[in-house]
């Protein structure tokens, strides 16, 4: 297989380390992380709590800053990529303002970026359709279920049409039935938009179901113990989770987590 060219590499990490200085001494969150994410990939980061997967996602988004190594996003530094609005970010909680309608919440970053009213209206309409919330723009967050609120949060991150979507356990607080439905919808949205997605999760089935690449991380200091290229087809009905291919990948993820965790699992 031909190595990816510079134009194909969306996220590049070269020996990235990140240490937090605290009153109790240094906390080594990431150590010597090397990773290449190509355009259009769906990459999940999985590992135990405190392994640095969210820290790494936040570093990509310039919300944290590596203390060693280099990190590039679309050929720029993370800070430059943030200023260029190269990514949308979806947090664990939907984070919608209760006094704004759903459409008003989605419009907020567009207002800050100075879009015209007509363009804002068009973008809000389009992203509401993308996340299957057409007709809910005039509702308030409290009038929507948890799953619908999270879809609205995804719509807000998609509104300015960034190439990259970063998602930090967006479905972790939802029940399994809703989570399955949103996993299906997210795969459909990814197929329609062709965006590059970085996705943090604690769930092995979720990581295997969604991803073209699964990055397995060790406990602190966070290191990558395995990078698994998924053999599954892009079109994935939920019942693919019962196939031998799916189960084999899930076993490899579990083995990677055990290997990085010593005898604790």
Automatic annotation (TrEMBL):
The keyword Transport appears for this protein: yes
Domain ABC transporter, residue spans: 11-240
Gene3D superfamilies in alphabetical order: P-loop containing nucleotide triphosphate hydrolases
GO MF terms held by the record: ATP binding; ATP hydrolysis activity
Entry keyword annotation includes Nucleotide-binding: yes
InterPro entries (UniProt xref): AAA+_ATPase, ABC_transporter-like_ATP-bd, ABC_transporter-like_CS, ABC_transporter_ATP-bind, P-loop_NTPase
Keywords: ATP-binding, Nucleotide-binding, Transport
Entry similarity comment: Belongs to the ABC transporter superfamily.
Name of this chain's protein: ATP-binding cassette domain-containing protein
Organism: Kangsaoukella pontilimi
């Amino acid at each position: 297989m031909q190595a990816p060219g510079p134009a194909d590499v969306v996220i590049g990490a070269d020996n990235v380390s990140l240490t937090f200085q605290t009153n109790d001494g240094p906390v080594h969150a990431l150590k010597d992380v090397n990773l290449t994410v190509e355009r259009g990939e769906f990459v999940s980061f999985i590992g135990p709590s405190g392994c640095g997967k969210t820290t790494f996602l936040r570093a990509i988004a310039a919300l944290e800053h590596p203390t060693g190594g280099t990190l590039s996003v679309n050929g720029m530094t993370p800070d430059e990529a943030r200023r260029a609005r190269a990514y949308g970010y979806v947090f664990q909680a939907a984070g919608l303002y209760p006094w704004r309608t759903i459409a008003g919440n989605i419009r907020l970053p567009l207002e800050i970026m100075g879009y015209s009213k007509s363009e804002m209206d068009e973008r809000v309409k389009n992203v509401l359709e993308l996340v299957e919330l057409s007709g809910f723009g005039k509702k308030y967050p409290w009038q929507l279920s948890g799953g619908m609120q999270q879809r609205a949060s995804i719509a807000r991150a998609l509104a300015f049409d960034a190439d990259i979507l970063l998602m930090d356990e967006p479905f972790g607080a939802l029940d399994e039935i809703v989570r399955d439905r949103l996993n299906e919808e997210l795969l459909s949205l990814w197929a329609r938009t062709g965006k590059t997605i970085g996705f943090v999760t604690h769930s092995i089935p979720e990581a295997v179901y969604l991803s073209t690449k699964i990055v397995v991380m060790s406990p602190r200091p966070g290191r990558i113990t395995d990078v698994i290229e998924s053999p599954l087809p892009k079109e994935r009905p939920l019942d693919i989770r019962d196939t031998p291919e799916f189960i084999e990948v899930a076993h490899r993820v579990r083995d990677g987590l055990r290997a990085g965790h010593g005898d604790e699992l």
